[in-house]
Amino acid sequence: MRARVISNRVIFVVLAMLLFSVLLLVNYSSAEEEVVKQKSDGDANIALTDPRSYAAYADRYKNEARPEATIRLEGEQYKSSAEMTPKPMNMDGTDGVLTDEIGEISWEFEVRESGLYDIALRYYPVAGRNESIERKLLIDGESPFNEADRMLFPRIWGNKQDSIKQDMNGNDLRPSQVEKPAWRDMKLQDSDGYVDEPFSFYFTAGKHVLTLKSEREPMLIDYIEIQKSEPMLTYVDWEREFTNKGYEKKQGIQLKVQGEQPLYTSSPTLYPTSDRSSPATEPYEVSVIRLNTIGGTNWRLPGQSVTWGIEVPEDGLYNIAIKYRQNLVKSQNVPRRLTIDGKVPFKEASQVIFEPSSGWQMMEVGGEEEPYWFYLEKGMHQLTLEVTLGDMKPILSQVESSILELNRLYREIIMITGASPDPYRDYQMTKRIPDLQKQFQVHADTLQAIVTELERMSGGLGERTAAIQTFQFQLSELARDPESIVNRIGSFKNNIVALGTWILTAKELPLEIDYLLLTSDGTELPDPEAAWYEKVWHESKSFVYSFFTDYSSVGSSAASDDAVEVWITGGRDQAQVIKTMIETEFTPKKGIAVNLQLVDPAVMLPATLAGSGPDVALMHGEVVNFALRDAIIDLSQFDTFEQVKSRFHPEAFVPLQFNGGTYAIPEQQTFPMLFYRKDVLDELGVEMPETWEDIYDLIPVLNKHHMNIGLTPQLTMDTLLFQNGGSYYEGDGIKSALDSEEAMEAFKQWTDLYRNYKAPQTFDFLNRFRVGEMPIGIADYTTYNSLIVFAPEIRGLWGFMPIPGYKDSDGKIHRETVTSAKGSVMFKSAKNKEQAWEFIDWWTSKEAQLAYGREMEAILGASGRYPTANLEALQELPWPVKDINALMDQMEWVRGVPDVPGAYSTQRHLNNAYFKVLNHGSNPRETLKDYVRIINQEITVKRREFDLPIAE
Q1: Model pTM?
Q2: Who's near 776: CB < 8 A, 6+ residues apart?
């Protein structure tokens, strides 16, 4: 009986478990059906297709007519202007109107027939800051779509010298890139490369107003044309056209144009480069540097173009062949847009494909079966290859939209959970964000479609898709369990950042070119690679020459016993630029020989003390260590010192002075600015903070939404100290001034920010600013360089301004903050001090600093923008006008910190006092006083060591 009862109970339990499993399956199936239903309800593109994008605009008007009409607006016949004074100007025999780098100008016109039109503009890039011209387009006072907010008009660049010069060792010297302005015709198009054809604008019949708002650089405008919007011909249509016209295919012609000899380029980064890896490269030398190619990693960003000139001997049809190497992007084709005399001849030429290869390849521009034929008349023609995104355009556009939405979603989540949520708390995420599961699923599906398309394009998956695959997997998991975002918020943010980084790498499409060929029918193309025996001979010679040639040396600018010995502790790129400037500018004009050496910073002091140091050192920051040991010269003794000093802000000299002497001339000067995310602050409904009272009001708002302000502790203390009227040292550094009332008040405010207001002490400002988690913060102004390059997805959504301060009784805001500087020093061992001073004078001049800054930006792009200390040079570097104005406003308030004997103890013990207050709750005033005594003891010991006066 007992056995039967147990058996019945077991059966009951089994049946109950089976029933529970069935219910689970039904519920899970229903959930899956709901997800599928959501995906099929038309919500798969939720928030991903911006209604203000050009794609949405073009789709809205795709069926509109394309009228046969042309409306010409002469530049000088503008209707109105605001915040600028347009000026009539004649350039190269053409009249136009000069527009400033700020303000706006408008033209009025009448359209007779509604429809789609292209807008073309003829412009001349007048002298400015050597940056691309940027305008915002408004039609009837409104921007028609997002992409019209940023219209770029490139400048024209070329080699400064007609021929390539060589150094004393026979190596080719990279020619400086200079602007070569000329009138240019351009249809308005997408600056980011996401749209292949020119923009088409819809105009209704009637009067309209077209406005160009200046965002950067001045521009001379000849005219604007509203033209018929015409789709491009296909090659089949073009082939039919030239057949009907009886164009002749030429015979027996082969013209070669070397890649390193372009007419002009769109960027100063596109200078001739050197390749010694193959004997097939033209021209070829194994033992010295020959500039024999162009492109590579410098020619990788959308919109960058190179133009060559080709002299055609007679009218007819020709083929175009290109010797290229594409070994930097594995398993991916690299596209280029081909134009001839400024026009794309047919649709297929807008996407010429270069397949990946490990070595040099020869490619005829053409389809799968035969090369394309191009009709060229006798005379000079311009052939241009421009970087375009090709098939990657829709993918990158979609990913960029996804990042913006995922960033927004991340901020929405952390406003509930914070950046470090409690894993044991139920935040009820799906109730507080009702469509959370749907958003996860939509983005997961979007990324999965992108992965599938990338796999189709490249024939497989690889490292270039790893970031997308990882994020897609996480989003799929989150779609199944949205509440688990609480435990995955850190990796979710990291994946957003990784996706943003992926866009940067995916947009980079490098290509290297050796030469181009214009060929005729039946012409045999040369072999792009060398024969095996040529490669063996090349490798053998390279091996032998490696024993005699130092390929990594910067080399001597002059062989002379009287040469000024100059050491630089920067990178090789910097050294090579300075060497070229010395050889082309300084030595020819001054007649002074210079020997430039690239050294490790660690060897500077030992070499100097050993008597084998240089005459001059550049980019030097440790003045006091050398001045204490009487190793460097007080530069204020030279006759022209005051003239040189006037080039710089007085505070730039403070860290370079000691004991009444000035031991360096500033080269670089940096200081902090307040960086802010406009979009996030707008979401929170707060104004930009101008004072510390505004900051104290803003912090609780940010904390309420689980966001933070970025205040680096040391930078904040420096700022508060100076704004309170304090300083670090008394007199010439004889004792600490941190025991003053001003310093005590600054120290209390400083510790209160981190103790009472809970400002984070350590943080990754770049990435947290990028995702909006830290929408405001004080950072060195060179942070701008990183953001402009590495955070393209938030372009236009952030800015910087002078840091907050305190209002005085007159209502004036005091924005004092710290500044740091590096400079050029002269050593006591210098053989010819007057010649060494001549070099420092030249190197720190406006002309040299500006040329160096532009050259470095030409090599490294915007990330290499040089923080020159020369005030005039700084204002002529390619900063947008509003940004340079903000920098100059802040520079009025900068204060330098003296570098004194024992200065290391100040930072060390100030930090000790700071952590004692934060960690142990000590009284700020008493704690700082205790540590000031220790600082003074260390300063006294150090001053005694070098026989300097001490405090009583």
Answers
A1: 0.83
A2: 674, 675, 676, 677, 681, 689, 698, 702, 709, 710
